[in-house]
Amino acid sequence: MSLQVHLRFPTDFRSVLQALVLLSASTAIVLLYQWQSHVHRKKSNAETVVAVDPVELNSIPGPLEFRESHVFKKGPTTEHWNLLALHRQYGPVVRIGPTHVSVADFDSVNAIYRQATTFLKTDWYDLFTEKGKGVIFNIRNKELHAKRRRIVSHGFSLSSTRVMLPFIRTKALHMVAQLAESSEAQDAVDDENREDDPSELLSRIIIAKDPATGHAMDFQTLCMEARGFILAASDTTANTLTMAVNHISRSQSVWTQLHRELKEAIPSMEALQDSLQDASSYYTQLPFLVACIKETYRLSPAIAKLLPRQVPNRGCSLAGHHVPAGTIVGTSIFVQHRWDEDLWGPSDYADEFHPERWLESSQSSEAEVAKLKKMNSFLTPFSQGTRACLGRHIADMELHVVLATLFRFYQPVHVVTPVEEMKEQGFFISGPRGGKCLIQFKSVELQ
Ligand code: HEM
């Protein structure tokens, strides 16, 4: 049987927010949105912009041509690959434009994005404003952003999103049933469908109030935020899922190890309903699945573009270089997850899918345990600090549930799509270059 994974947009608004268990990618909607927003771009979202003297950046390593032009102009959809090559050549800090600097080392990345950061988002984010109005994703003013985020954050908390587990499981079962031809599998899905929908994310956002003022969002703001969530949620999750399925399916030994673990947790199709009922069991009972997902986050983060931030008034020091106020700095998560050889190994090992790097063995030395701890804290596919992804718990749970369900009952026999077409690419949200991943699976239910 040949499965071509594809994107389906649910029809009603509530399920759009909820149904994110879809494979493959389409960037057309996002691009259209970006174009429309650009037409209505307004300056009101802007912070004070400090003029930078480019000469002050001359001591920062990088190709001379980028003192005058800009690395981004060399292919906006593959910028992260260019940045990776530059960091491998020049080190942790690279000048990538007249007033632009890219970083890739642990301390610099943390200094820019950590919790109490004063490095604000730059006017690049105004590309995404609609009629001059921002949403949580692109509001640059620190106080406005904190206020808006505070209103909805409860609905996205770990405990709130875990309530969505039954809904996500139902969607995962639908997917497996679509692959299966047996009526038995279809019955299992129909049984699950009798459950009430417990996810209610949209309802929670509608009634959410600012704890400080007691006010809810007005209707227009609510609609804009909801649309923002759809854009932020769909292709990111879909592409990550596609990449995970692709990475796992390309290695027979990875699938075998994963399947062994899943078979123990879910002994049969009949046992599926009663297995892994609690969200935390996916994390505690399935360490190899967790490692496969971490390795996908590392290699193929859905947002690979450098996330630009403006250096605050006092300037800063990054990897021993003084960087003046107003300079645009940032990291590409994609580069951050591959560059440092001490953490990720030499480039050929860093660029390959090796889930076992995330598993601590009983023989691990103290140094190895410390390294693993650092790797975990540097693995930030959802970014970090006050601008970290709001939907990370939802996305993470979806990945665990869908991959566990798929690979428990299906074995990949052939990945049709060439490796080259699966290379990460995208203007803002990154996904497979070819836009899809074609894989042949066979059912393993009876084994
Ligand atoms: C695997 C899936 C996902 C990945 C890899 C991802 C990644 C990210 C990253 C890296 C950022 C920071 C962007 C920046 O600084 O410019 C971000 C922000 C955001 N994401 Fe996600 N995301 C995912 C899924 C979701 C989902 C499911 C939702 C909502 C249901 C969501 C909502 C948001 C929002 C609202 C922001 C803006 C947060 C803020 O600025 O305060 N994301 N995401």
UniProtKB/TrEMBL annotation:
It holds the Pfam family p450. Keywords: Heme, Iron, Membrane, Metal-binding, Monooxygenase, Oxidoreductase, Transmembrane, Transmembrane helix. InterPro entries: Cyt_P450 (IPR001128), Cyt_P450_CS (IPR017972), Cyt_P450_E_grp-IV (IPR002403), Cyt_P450_sf (IPR036396), Cytochrome_P450_monoxygenase (IPR050121). The chain crosses the membrane at residues 16-35. Its cofactor is heme. Heme binds at residue 389. One of its GO terms (molecular function) is iron ion binding. PANTHER family: CYTOCHROME P450 (PTHR24305), P450, PUTATIVE (EUROFUNG)-RELATED (PTHR24305:SF152). Belongs to the cytochrome P450 family. This is Cytochrome P450.
